[in-house]
Amino acid sequence: MIIGQSIQIQRILTFIDKLSKTDTTALIMGESGTGKELVAKMIHQKSSRAEKPFIPVNCAAIPSELLESELFGHEKGAFTGAQNCRYGRFELANEGTIFLDEIGDMPLHLQVKILRVIQEKTFERIGGTRPIQVNVRIIAATNKDLENEVKEGRFREDLFWRLNVVPVVIPPLRERKEDIPLLCEYFINKFSHKFGYSLQIKPEVMQIFLNYTWPGNVRELENLIERLYVLNEGGNINIKDIPERIRFGENSFQKELIPDDLNPFSSGIDLNEVLKEYEKKLILHALNLHGWIKSRAAKYLNINRTTLIEKMKRLNIKDNENED
Ligand SMILES: Nc1ncnc2c1ncn2[C@@H]1O[C@H](COP(=O)(O)OP(=O)(O)OP(=O)(O)O)[C@@H](O)[C@H]1O
Q1: Is 259 part of any domain?
Q2: 49 alpha carbon – ligand 1 mean position (Å)
Q3: What's the complex ipTM?
Q4: What processes in GO biological process is this protein linked to (predicted)?
């Protein structure tokens, strides 16, 4: 089930409906963990091939020297150790769907064979001469910029255009934050069946989730909820239960970058947090420069003494006992 109320997810659901009524090749693009395999499975399950196999192949996880035999199989005696004839995944997926995950990592010589399967619906097993006919729908996915891979010569342009007939782009979770509460609810519900108890996320924790950038996308959120189930036997989830990486992730990263005004903040800026840190630095600088005499430091900063005291309290700057 694909969860999400964002416009982007609603649009993807419409795409899935349309794609499941046809037999065209589809290309799903998105960062790791955004749900590419889930979308591919859903297209298959809603299609007329639903009763037939859905065969996923992670092209990046299988060493390139094994990938060809994994995909296309081999004849008996095709190479040392090939004692029996072996069916490849294309044959196993016959009448169903093959999901070629991480297709951007597929070696060029295999891209040619894939192109031929798309165009002619035939291939040969390794060591074989007899063309084998298959009726397989191909859905491919990638987290790479395939157009760029084409430019760099690592991906065949003809295959790119063949795959890119109907591109589906799944945006990262940080670009559809309105899906986060729904996804939390969905995973809490899912794991409550497995663990036999439930969790509640406090609003301040949800705020942290909304501020975080989720580089591992939905998979990271799902893993976090499972982890919270393992470590907390039910009840409320408080801020202290959340790993520091998520609690302070972006902020601790930014703190290191503050001295350099023009640093490239690759994943966005929490302006209030950065300004607060910068203000604290300037106030500490002024206080140190003037021996922690607040009236002088305030004058140096061109603010009132009372404003300085107020700011020191807010920024948690401990007084150095030097009263003026
Ligand atoms: N919108 C969603 N609703 C419910 N579950 C989701 C959603 N998106 C992703 N998931 C879940 O998140 C996990 C990761 O999704 P999936 O494996 O489909 O991602 P992927 O993009 O194929 O990742 P990778 O590129 O690393 O292979 C899965 O458990 C999947 O069920």
Answers
A1: no
A2: 22
A3: 0.98
A4: positive regulation of DNA-templated transcription
